[in-house]
Amino acid sequence: MYEAFFGLRERPFDLSPDSRFLFLAASHQEALSNLDYGLSARKGVTLLIGEAGMGKTTLVRAVLASYRKRDALCVYLNNPTLTRSEFLRFIANEFGLPPAAATDKVTCLRELEAVLLRRAEAGQISALLIDEAQSMPHELLEEVRLLANMETDTTKLLPLILAGQPELAGRLNDPSLRQLKQRIALRCELKPFDLGRTAAYIATRIRTAGGEAARVFTREAVIRIHEASQGIPRVISVICDNALVAGFAAGASPISSRLVEEVCRDFDLQKQTPPEPPVKAESMFSDEEPAEPSAADEGIAAGAADHHTVTEPQLFGDYSRRRRMSFF
Fold it and tell me: Cβ(108)–Cβ(88) under 8 Å?
């Protein structure tokens, strides 16, 4: 069992009715709690920081879907490289303001505040969630600060979530943005997975697809995936997905570190030193690395383009007919 293997008890987290599972490591769970609290308690600005591929958009969309089921008016902007006038039109359209609000800032602010007040008095949540916020022009960051000023004597009218890469944190250190930085009530940062959580993430995705981790990747393959991905979930998924395709074509089961290494070379992922000593595996992933391929084995890979010569390996045997394995 994985729990005995790594001493952890990570598990999928379900936020939606269609059972789309999220794997939440500690920093992701903390971030999700902060985003939830920031909206429910109307805490002004909540800042979510993380490297590309760490799952920021996934968490923001999960919170968005959850609150939209609660009759909340949550506006989501995922491409904030807009001009002031474009941002004004976006706000007017998304909050259902009169047509005049899209062209006149005074009208927009007056109508927006009236909508937010009515909703607050009815106990309803209104929010603005901005993804890729590191790309926002300076003038829009100032507009966001002014929106964060909308409040009553007791509560904020428009809680905001700003999600972005680490450059966003650097930009907020600019003296000209100090007023916006002072309005950040909650701050959370997503951390890369360590080796144990990389293995847990892979095993969870395999189980969700109906598979058995020990039949898919060897321990050494998982360690190599962790080294190459540096614990970034998106990169882990890309490596695993392509390793599965390569393993299917070559008839390899389980996937070895050699196959993972080939995928890493294809994607120009240089070998990285792991941040911690390798974890000794007991039972989750296969102990045995497949032997080096013989000339006959190389012939299997060479002939993979002819689908009539490739049989479905054990890797996809029992569960591929029920649910095709994919990390995307």
Answer: yes
Say yes or no: domain 26-189 is CATH 3.40.50.300. yes
Residues 196 and 7: their CA atoms lie apart, in Å, by 9
Which residue's structure tokens are 């987290």?
Answer: 13
Q: Is the pLDDT of residue 110 over 80?
A: yes
Q: Per the structure block, which two tokens stand in for 296?
A: 């006959």
What residue segments make up the domains of the chain, in order of their start? 26-189, 195-316
How far is it, in rounded angstroms, from Cα 182 to Cα 228?
A: 38
Which residues are bridge partners to 19 per DSSP? none
Q: In angstroms, rounded to a whole number, what is the distance separating the alpha carbons of residues 234 and 58?
A: 11
Q: At what angle do helices 233-250 and 257-266 cross, to 10 degrees?
A: 110
Mean pLDDT, the chain, as a whole number? 82
Residue type, 18: D
Q: How far apart are CA 98 and CA 47, in angstroms?
A: 30
Confidence of residue 292 (pLDDT cuts 50, 70, 90): low
Q: What is the pTM of this model?
A: 0.78
Question: d(Cα 324, Cα 328) in Å, to the nearest integer?
Answer: 11
CA-to-CA separations, 147 to 87, 110, 160, 257, in angstroms, rounded: 12, 12, 9, 51
